[in-house]
Design a protein that fits this description.
Distance between the termini: 38 Å
Number of strands: 13
Radius of gyration: 23 Å
Structural class: alpha+beta
Number of helices: 19
Helix content: 40-55%
Strand content: 5-15%
Oligomer: single chain
Length: 491
């Protein structure tokens, strides 16, 4: 029965085959006592992987990389990257493996990737392992992002290894199996360019076009079209982060995907009180990746991608710079349009470009609501959800959250004149997000062996727009004694 279950799917080794210079064949570390902690049945079905099979001993070993299925060619991927602004010519998967690609039920090629599967040649001083808490964090937050309709890698499973891992204390080890459109990064292009192997750089770009932007192949300048597509995808993605108050925390170039999916949920968090300077990463001491800086840093990362791709734009570097600058120059407008359109939706205003007197009024209302949020410690998620009550005639919930009541009343009067749609607001303003104090509560319990709080919370964030009775605690701001929240990468 096990063999039959496995025979219904086939892995491919396309990345390993087409880009061998970026792939080191490797095997996952054996887990002494594997235990499946959580499995994403819906995602497994989407991939054509039987959840029943994945729960068998052999299936669990597959999720750890200890059983290599037919066609799979596990590799550690090589890439470079700017980390907090400093360039590292060789990073790579120090504790991860690309198990291979699989065609899902829609015919899309998807990566199956393991995190915490043991040391690789890129591990440097690390042990290559991961622990239960951070792997469950990535599972929870990536599923919340997916439910919020934000492009993201997905979590397929978390498996405990049965091995203790030394961090500040000894903690239970785990492996995360995640799924992505691909794991191509800005850092992949930086690495290829650093090798000075232009044929490799070209093959990498062709691979990216084939995987993500096949229409670029028909353009007059395919590689420039590829770059333009990545710029547009990232502009939209970062705008979506900003609209829900998400702070990535580690926007290094090796954590920016070519596909436009969110990747790496280490030092990440959702804002509680609105704060443009919000920083949650323990290692971001200078606030480089603060909430308000994310669009600027995304553009900076894309400039590094342009530098890496210059030889593909034109053999004469001087002639390559102008079209690269022009393409990158579109980022700000694309980001602004996506963010402004999203803010109009959050305020229940009609979609469309900001033109004429009505457009000017909408722009002033967006600026005005940001000013209200900045004026005091206003819970970002709660405020927009409560604002829909104002649109229905009850201003008390939202009004009670701000300090300057006169300013709110003046703003709300102008806003109400545009007849905001509360039904539209409820469709885009979540009730439930992965609130930081509840994330920590769930992960602490899971580390001690109790997965019930985690599973309950997971169920809540998978339906973020549907307000449900009995879930009030999942909408509340953190208690006063929660303090300044800090997250860690887990390595």
């Amino acid at each position: 029965m096990t063999a039959a279950a496995e025979s219904t799917f086939t892995f491919e080794g396309r990345f390993a085959r087409e880009l061998a210079e970026l792939a080191v064949p490797w095997q996952a570390e054996e887990a002494p006592e594997p235990q499946l902690l959580v499995l994403n049945d819906a995602l497994a079905d989407e991939l054509g992987l039987s959840p029943e099979y994945l729960r068998t001993p052999e299936g669990v070993r597959l999720l750890l990389g200890n059983h290599v299925p037919t066609g799979a060619t596990p590799v550690a991927q090589a890439y470079a990257g700017h980390q907090f602004g400093g360039y590292s010519p060789l990073l790579g998967d120090g504790r991860a493996l690309l198990l291979g690609e699989i065609l899902d039920t829609e015919g899309r090629l998807r990566d199956v990737h393991l995190k915490g599967s043991g040391r690789t040649p890129f591990a440097r001083a690390g042990d290559g392992r991961a622990v239960v808490g951070p792997m469950l964090r990535e599972y929870l937050v990536s599923e919340a992002m997916h439910a919020l309709n934000i492009p993201t890698t997905r979590a397929l499973a978390v498996v405990a290894t049965g091995r203790l891992v030394r961090r500040d204390t000894m903690l239970p080890g785990a492996v995360l199996a995640r799924v992505a459109s691909s794991h191509l990064r800005v850092g992949s292009f930086q690495y290829a360019r650093a090798t000075e192997n232009m044929e490799l750089l070209r093959r990498l770009a062709d691979h990216a076009i084939s995987r993500h932007y096949p229409e670029s192949a028909q353009a007059e300048h395919p590689y420039l079209a590829l770059f333009e597509a990545v710029v547009a995808a990232q502009a939209k993605l970062v705008a979506q982060w900003m609209l829900v108050g998400f702070v990535h925390g580690v926007m290094n170039t090796d954590n920016m995907t070519i596909s436009g999916e969110t990747i790496d949920y280490g030092p990440c968090a959702f804002m509680d009180a609105f704060n443009p300077a919000a920083v949650y990463s323990s290692i971001d001491v200078g606030g480089r990746y603060a909430y308000a800086n994310q669009p600027v840093l995304a553009e900076w990362n894309l400039a590094r991608l342009a530098e890496a791709m210059l030889p593909l734009f034109n053999e004469d570097q001087e002639q390559a710079v102008a079209p690269a600058v022009e393409a990158l120059g579109k980022f700000r407008g694309q980001y602004s349009d996506a963010w402004f359109g999203g803010m109009k939706a959050k305020l229940g205003l009609a979609a469309g470009p900001a033109e004429g007197a009505e457009g000017d009024e909408a722009s002033e209302l967006v600026d005005g609501v940001i000013a209200l949020l900045k004026d005091g410690p206003v819970d970002y998620t709660q405020f927009f959800r409560n604002l829909a009550h104002t649109a229905r005639g009850n201003s008390r919930p939202a009004r009670g959250m701000v300090l300057d009541l006169a300013a709110f009343d003046a703003w709300a009067g102008r806003w109400a004149a545009l007849k905001p749609d509360p039904v539209q607001m409820d469709r885009v303003n979540p009730v439930y997000i992965p609130r930081n104090h509840l994330v920590e509560e769930a992960l602490a319990a899971a580390t001690e062996g109790d997965l019930d709080p985690f599973n309950r919370f997971l169920d809540v964030v998978r339906s973020p727009y549907e307000e449900r009775e009995g879930l009030e605690r999942y909408t509340e701001a953190p208690p006063e004694d929660f303090g300044n929240y800090r997250t860690f990468c887990g390595t």
